[in-house]
């Protein structure tokens, strides 16, 4: 692995690692966050496509790429909702664990990954480690019925959101184009969901329209971080760079930065014991992710 490939492979560490913390720091409601983030992603994608002379795909390639973006944006709205319930430092390890579980199971059931008994046993062990690691990151010393109830609701929300993240990853597999050509239509699908969601809430009239709130447009900045991460991951996963397996492992390091920055910069405090167990849980998640892509 050369230095250039490594630096590109670590792009998701910065982009996806800082994205939830920046979005939470800017504030606003989930609708503000998704509207600004997807707008920022589309701006980034348009500039990238223009600089590289990439045109929109056609036919079903376009449809599936847009569906991929719709899946991500739908899931991200749910993830933003969970941030308001338990904070990004607890929500991010859980959603990462669900994404790893979903990707692994999809690979086994649909793509024929983990051939042989030994691979399936090791893969099963990795999935158990992912679940254990996620549980450790949300463990608390001070247990109350109210906190347990909120956490349970957040976990259920994030589990439902995995359907959208699965679509984000799986839909492009039905196309004949590479990730860089799918990037712009994905961004279009993301913004489409954000606009429809924002318009729906505006029509309900219970809250101020997200289109008229300045905080929505401040989130364009956070959208740049997501877009940077998504693009560098697509490049990193190419065979002449890090390849899909190594690129995937490097991208998962983002959960560490997302969790720790949420604790350090957003006031999502943990006791010394909780912090120790959280770090062990993060290590387990990363170790299990490495196992799944090496099988």
What does this structure look like?
There is one protein chain. With 295 residues, the chain is mainly alpha-helical. Helices cover 80% and strands 0% of the residues. The protein has 13 helices and no strands. The protein has helices spanning 3-9, 11-26, 30-52, 59-86, 88-109, 117-137, 145-170, 179-204, 214-218, 220-236, 243-252, 254-265, 272-294. The radius of gyration is 19 Å and the shape is globular. 48% of the residues are buried. The mean pLDDT is 89.
Task: Give a summary of the structure in a few sentences.
With 295 residues, this protein is mostly helical. It is built from 13 helices and no strands. It has helices at residues 3-9, 11-26, 30-52, 59-86, 88-109, 117-137, 145-170, 179-204, 214-218, 220-236, 243-252, 254-265, 272-294.
Task: Describe the secondary structure blueprint for this structure.
Blueprint: H1 3-9, H2 11-26, H3 30-52, H4 59-86, H5 88-109, H6 117-137, H7 145-170, H8 179-204, H9 214-218, H10 220-236, H11 243-252, H12 254-265, H13 272-294
Helix pairs in contact: 1-10, 2-10, 2-12, 3-4, 3-8, 3-10, 4-5, 4-7, 4-8, 5-6, 5-7, 5-12, 5-13, 6-13, 10-11, 11-13
Low-confidence parts, pLDDT < 50 over ≥5 residues?
none
Query: Can you write the helix and strand succession as a string?
Result: HHHHHHHHHHHHH
Q: What's the average pLDDT?
A: 89
Strand content: under 5%
Secondary structure: helix percent = over 70%
Give the termini separation: 20 Å
**Dominant shape:** globular
Radius of gyration over alpha carbons? 19 Å
What is the helix tally?
A: 13
> Which structural class is indicated by helix and strand composition?
mainly alpha
Number of E-state strands: 0
The major beta sheet can be summarized as:
none
Transmembrane segments: 6-22, 34-56, 62-80, 92-112, 118-138, 180-203, 215-235, 247-266, 275-294
Subcellular location: Cell membrane
Membrane topology: Multi-pass membrane protein
Family: Belongs to the GRP transporter (TC 2.A.7.5) family.
């Amino acid at each position: 692995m050369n230095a250039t490939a490594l630096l590109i492979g670590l792009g998701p560490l910065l982009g996806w690692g800082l994205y939830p913390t920046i979005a939470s720091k800017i504030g606003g409601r989930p609708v503000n966050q998704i509207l600004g983030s997807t707008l920022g992603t589309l701006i980034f994608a348009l500039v990238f496509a223009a600089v590289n002379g990439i045109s929109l795909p056609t036919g079903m390639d376009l449809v599936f790429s847009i569906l991929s973006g719709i899946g991500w944006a739908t899931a991200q709205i749910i993830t933003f909702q969970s941030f308001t319930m338990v904070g990004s430092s607890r929500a991010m390890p859980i959603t990462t664990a669900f994404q790893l579980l979903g990707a692994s199971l999809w690979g086994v059931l649909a793509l024929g990954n983990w051939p042989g008994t030994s691979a399936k046993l090791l893969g099963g062990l990795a999935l158990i480690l992912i679940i254990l690691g996620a549980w450790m990151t949300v463990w608390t010393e001070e247990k109350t019925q109210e906190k347990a109830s909120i956490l349970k609701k957040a976990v259920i929300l994030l589990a439902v959101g995995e359907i959208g993240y699965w679509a984000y990853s799986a839909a492009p597999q039905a196309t004949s184009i590479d990730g860089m050509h799918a990037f712009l239509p994905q961004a279009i699908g993301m913004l489409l969901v954000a606009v429809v969601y924002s318009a729906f809430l505006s029509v309900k009239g219970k809250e101020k329209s997200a289109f008229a709130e300045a905080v929505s447009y401040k989130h364009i900045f956070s959208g740049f971080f997501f877009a940077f991460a998504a693009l560098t991951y697509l490049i990193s996963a190419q065979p002449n760079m890090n390849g899909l397996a190594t690129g995937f492992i490097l991208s998962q390091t983002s959960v560490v930065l997302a969790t720790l920055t949420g604790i350090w910069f957003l006031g999502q405090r943990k006791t010394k014991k909780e912090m120790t167990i959280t770090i062990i849980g993060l290590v387990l998640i990363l170790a299990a992710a490495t196992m799944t892509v090496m099988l």
